[in-house]
Structure formats: structure tokens, C-alpha cells
User: What shape does this take?
Amino acid sequence: MSPSDRDTAEPKDRPRVILVDDERDSRELLRMTLEDAGFEVAEASNGLRLISILHVDRPDVILLDVRMSWIDGFELCRSIKKNEEFRSIPVVFVSALATPEAIREGLDAGAVDYFAKPIDIDRLLARLRELTRTVRE
Assistant: This one.
């Protein structure tokens, strides 16, 4: 999709991503990057906000931080995957916590991928395009 196509595309035609991170600056930077790449982006500052958004607008992918208030990302991912209505939505972790144990726990919780901060944005965009292409077919 060219930049001009992206500007005229209806938001509903764009792949939808929800960013879940309690750090506003991290969300805003990633949101701008994803929007520039042609994604429709919603933001949630915690798991409770994510759940309320999921009931209103189903995303194609959830980008989830690990360390958050109220509920950590691992537990939130497990909860999503237990819910019949939402379990098919791919979850991708994006976190500064990048130990082998954390990555394993994230994948065991049901995530399809795990990206360490600072993010390799080209790799993340490629993965999101792959996931949203699969979801929308």
C-alpha cells in the first residue's frame, strides 16, 4: 500500500492493533510508528482497559507489555487465551523484560511472538503484517 493509499483507506480497512502498556510515552511512540505503517491502533493502559476495548472492537492483533499495574502481561495473556470469544486473537509481547525465562513464559502463556525493547521495528512490522494477513484471509 502506498502512502497515498494509506491516507485514503478507511480505518476499518486497515489491520487493527491494540497496544497495551502502562507507559504512555511507549504507547504513543509505537502507535505513531504503526499508524505510519498503515495500521489502525487503539491503546490501553492496563488489562482492564483492554478487556473493555475487546468487548467493543475486536482487533486483529494485541501488542502486550509484561510489566503493568493491576495484572501483569503474562496473566492477562493467559486470561485472553482462556476466553472463547478472544482466544483466537494473536498476542505479541513487546517488553523490556527479555530474559530467556520471560520469553518462554510469554510463549507458554499463549503469545505467538515476543519482542524485546528496544524493538527492531522492521521485524515487528513484518511480523504484524504476517499475522494480520493470516487473520484477514
